[in-house]
Write the structure tokens for this entry.
Amino acid sequence: MELLSQPLILLGCRDRDLKREQVYASPDSMVCPLHTGFVVHGKPQLEHRLKLKVFPVEEPCCDCIASRQLFDQCFSQALATLGFHGSYKPGSGVWIYRNVIDLRRPVPYIWPAKTDDPNFPPPKPGEPRRWPWTGRMCGDHGSPIWEPIHFYHNTVVVRDPAFRDYYAAGWGGHVNSRRWIFNNVLVQLEGKPGLQFDPPSEALLSADGNLLWSLRDGASVKGNFFAAFRRSDRFTRSKKHYPPGWGASDRFADPKLTRLSADWRGPLDVRLQEGSPAIDSGVSLPEDWPDPVRKQDRGKPDIGALPLGAEAFKAGR
């Protein structure tokens, strides 16, 4: 999967879903699944330097909003991969499934202040470039109400802990509308994955069947990674609206992806190897949830973007 050499500006139509595109957001942009589609927004102060056109997001008519679907994508190097902004009213929701989201690459949150800015050290011989920042899985501008989100059967690789240690690479935060998080592989290169949640009401969130792992620190974890959370009042309260409890079937284990390196220059192959703990470890999802490879998944659902034996899709042109 090769990245596009230039940022890709995507303005989706209400009747068109995005499928099998290599989505590359510049280091100063993000992809936003809004009512009108998917829009890459540049930082206004960097617009001239980047020559990146900023498209306004139209205020949609609520009676003509269709559910947005985002699937069979590969996302890489984005400031915030999926986010929301504006004062619009939420629509019928966003369905995000069977995507590869690779956020290992560093991104510049600021411009260098000087030639030898310590935030931008040159790489050592043979080592990858490293800056203090990498992209985030999700976020917002101005604390808007997010669309209802179904986020399931994705494989996500991030370098750093999520903002405020939110669960599932950040999906456990900014929960101000209905959200479902199921059967995702979520690998963090450094530090332990977060288990924090912020819904004002447990009724807003359902989450289970996800596999969490830390490439650097996972092997040092002793005992049950989820034990403290599953003893918490928050977990108990979550059962009132999701009877098993948030993350009751979650696993903390090496997913045994075919190729995964902490070096962002290396390729990422998210196909599961034989013996992966992701195999047959997901939870069953409703049949009416769209899924182009459900019939390829034998037995219980495999966790992640690709079930065992599935061919890696080719994203991009």
User: Anything to note?
Assistant: The radius of gyration is 19 Å. Residues 18-296 form one domain. The helical segments are 47-50, 227-230, 233-238.
